[in-house]
Automatic annotation (TrEMBL):
This is Potassium channel domain-containing protein. The keyword RNA-binding does not apply. InterPro entries: K_chnl_dom. It comes from Nocardioides aromaticivorans. Pfam families: Ion_trans_2. The chain crosses the membrane at residues 21-37, 43-62, 67-88, 94-117, 129-150, 170-189, 201-221.
Length: 231
């Protein structure tokens, strides 16, 4: 028999009612923890698996149909396995590409699920506000994996101040940093694409970032106006 949320301890109730907040906080904590964990195989495996499990839990919490759950599981389960494989063999090209082949559509699908959750009715809950941030960070993760695959398929795709040699692949965390600066339109230019295909991917992320902000702002303004009209 399922236990009602109201009977659960207060901290558990908070987590159950705000899964998007858990996802957002977990991703930001992983961003802070990654530099300290990246030096070991075990640390990289912990980061990858915890990230995937948190996202899977969030998708389960905000699902609206069984299709969302099944698609997330079909993409997410192999991604968890490949996250561990990539932690063990981070320089093995086919492992990086295979990992990206599941991580990229998985993260983009999660973002779609969160946006769908945000738009499913005419009112915005506290958790839906957290979902706007969580969806944004999930997209950044997806593009980071896309960049990782790109530099395997097109060697020398990216260069940066710490790796000026185009023959050296950038670490995944630097690609995540590039993804966040691109998606937020900060454009610090200390890491940048030099191959045409890589530049095309970066341009897609720039468009996605601008479109996402416009979409969320339009949604919130529209809800504010409809609420004022009802009053």
């Amino acid at each position: 028999m399922t236990t009602p949320i109201s009977r659960l301890p207060a901290p558990v109730r908070a987590v159950a009612r705000h899964p998007s907040a858990v996802l957002l906080v977990a991703q930001l904590v992983l961003v802070l923890a990654y530099p300290g964990l990246d030096g070991s195989t075990f640390g990289r495996a912990v980061v990858g698996v915890v990230q995937m499990l948190v996202v899977l839990a969030a998708v389960w919490a905000v699902r609206r149909t069984e299709v969302l759950t099944w698609v997330a599981l079909l993409l997410g389960a192999p991604a968890v396995v490949l996250a561990v494989a990539e932690a063990v063999e981070p320089d093995l090209g086919w492992v990086v590409v295979a990992s990206a082949a599941f991580h990229v559509p998985f993260y983009f699908f999660v973002s779609y699920a969160l946006i769908r959750y945000l738009f499913h009715d005419e009112k915005v809950t506290r958790d839906e506000l957290f979902a706007t941030g969580a969806a944004f960070t999930v997209v950044a993760w997806g593009f980071a994996y896309l960049y990782a695959a790109a530099q395997v398929i097109w060697p020398g795709s990216f260069v940066g101040w710490s790796s000026p040699d185009a023959s050296t692949d950038l670490p995944w965390f630097e690609l995540l940093y590039l993804s966040f600066t691109t998606l937020t339109s900060v454009g610090l230019s200390d890491i940048y694409p030099v191959v045409a295909q890589a530049r095309s991917l970066v341009m897609l992320e720039q468009v996605a970032g601008v479109f996402y902000v416009a979409l969320v702002v339009a949604r919130l303004v529209g809800l504010t106006r409809s609420g004022a009209a009802r009053d």
